[in-house]
């Protein structure tokens, strides 16, 4: 029997497929490998296929779309309420098939290879930055254990570490000197790797039209532009600018009941790396941008008089996200004279 809609529960090597008829009855139930799944899908009539957005989902989605199927990806937390009884792979696949038919379901855009490459660059860069911070902190800790303190900031440590290692009068043992020289070499290597990936991201931002338009927005540089493009593409998955800000976790978390609205701190949903980039961009706007040349200048001045600085920073990050959505969806560059 043919299936009107299919749900696929993804795994590393084993995939479970459940097909439903228009009436919602199970017509197909199959367990197969990735190769077998693609072969089976190529020989079945085109239909709507749902999957959870997880590692490997974008590759499989592109392969199924190339076969003529309509593929939609969903966040796993939105599929969970459709799971009936005890959990197993077939029940999960059936829940996916039911969830993908919901008209109010929120879907994840399918990423192309260029987006996945950009996303990988940002993830590797973020991990290298974390390693660099760990190496610097470890160097400081070892020096402090031997009674040597260095002023705050990586620049001070980088400047003083050669003289510290060459000073024969301090209390560093030969083994500790060797170990710290190895840590210093690791730090230098990480700096070179981070600089190289920064240059690559800057070059990518120059070569992509959407990134070039995002760069016209104050507070958005090559890192934010490429990270946002890699995450959401042309932003058409979001109906309005507030949806993008909410997806980034830059709107208040709500806990309302009985007709009484109660707003809490920001929800911090979505990608924390991307949200962090917008927060840093908002801080630079507050510190460096000439507000009289931008439409948000008066609004920002009034906000700072009644709100703490961190609240103003998050509000500015929210506005930058909304402006970014308008720039991506309209195909136009940022105009300082237009209110977002």
Structure description:
The structure is a single chain. The protein folds into three domains: 5-99, 2-Layer Sandwich (Nucleotidyltransferase, domain 5); 113-207; 209-330, no CATH class. The radius of gyration is 25 Å and the shape is globular. It is α/β, with parallel strands linked by helices and 340 residues long. Strand 1 and strand 2 (15-20) form a beta hairpin. Helix 11 (272-288) packs across helix 13 (309-330). The chain is built from 13 helices and seven strands. The strands form two sheets. The protein has a five-stranded mixed β-sheet. It has a two-stranded antiparallel ribbon with strand order 6-7.
Explain the layout of strands and helices.
Elements: E1 5-9, E2 15-20, E3 26-32, H1 34-43, E4 48-52, H2 57-66, E5 70-74, H3 76-79, H4 89-99, H5 113-145, H6 154-166, H7 174-207, H8 209-214, H9 222-232, H10 241-247, E6 252-254, E7 263-266, H11 272-288, H12 297-306, H13 309-330
Parallel strand pairs: 1-4, 4-5
Antiparallel strand pairs: 1-2, 2-3, 6-7
Helix pairs in contact: 5-7, 5-9, 7-9, 9-11, 10-13, 11-13
Unreliably modeled segments: none
Query: What is the count of β-strands?
Result: 7
Cα-to-Cα separation, first versus last residue: 52 Å
**C-alpha geometry:** globular
Q: Give the SSE string.
A: EEEHEHEHHHHHHHHEEHHH
Radius of gyration: 25 Å
The whole-number mean of residue pLDDT values reads: 90
Specify the number of helices: 13
């Amino acid at each position: 029997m043919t299936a009107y809609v299919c749900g696929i529960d993804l795994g590393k090597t084993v995939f479970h497929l459940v097909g439903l008829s228009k009436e919602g009855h199970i017509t197909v139930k199959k367990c197969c490998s990735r190769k077998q799944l693609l072969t089976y899908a190529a020989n079945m009539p085109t239909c709507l296929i749902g999957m959870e957005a997880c590692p490997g989902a974008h590759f499989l989605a592109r392969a199924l779309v190339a076969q003529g199927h309509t593929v939609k990806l969903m966040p796993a937390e939105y599929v969970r309420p459709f799971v009936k009884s005890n959990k197993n792979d077939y029940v999960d696949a059936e829940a996916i098939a039911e969830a993908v038919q919901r008209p109010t379901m929120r879907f994840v855009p399918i990423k192309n290879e260029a987006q996945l490459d950009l996303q990988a660059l940002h993830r590797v860069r973020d991990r290298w930055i974390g390693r660099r911070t760990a190496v610097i902190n470890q160097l400081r800790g070892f020096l402090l254990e031997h009674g040597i303190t260095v002023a705050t900031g990586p620049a001070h440590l980088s400047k003083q570490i050669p003289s510290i290692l060459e000073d024969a009068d301090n209390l560093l043992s030969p083994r500790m000197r060797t170990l710290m020289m190895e840590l210093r070499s690791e730090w230098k290597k990480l700096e070179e790797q981070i600089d190289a990936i920064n240059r690559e991201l800057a070059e990518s931002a120059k070569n992509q039209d959407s990134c070039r338009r995002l760069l016209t927005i104050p507070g958005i540089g090559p890192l934010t532009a490429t990270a946002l493009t890699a995450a959401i593409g042309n932003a058409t998955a979001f109906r309005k600018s507030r949806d993008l800000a909410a997806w980034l976790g830059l709107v208040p978390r709500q806990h309302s009941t009985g007709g009484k609205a109660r707003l809490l701190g920001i929800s911090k949903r979505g990608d924390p790396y991307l949200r962090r980039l917008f927060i840093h961009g908002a801080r630079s706007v507050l510190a460096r941008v000439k507000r009289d040349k931008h439409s948000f200048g008066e609004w920002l001045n009034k906000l700072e008089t009644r709100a703490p600085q961190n609240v103003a920073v998050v509000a500015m990050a929210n506005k930058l996200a909304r402006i970014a959505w308008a720039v991506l969806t309209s195909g136009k560059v940022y105009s300082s004279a237009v209110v977002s």
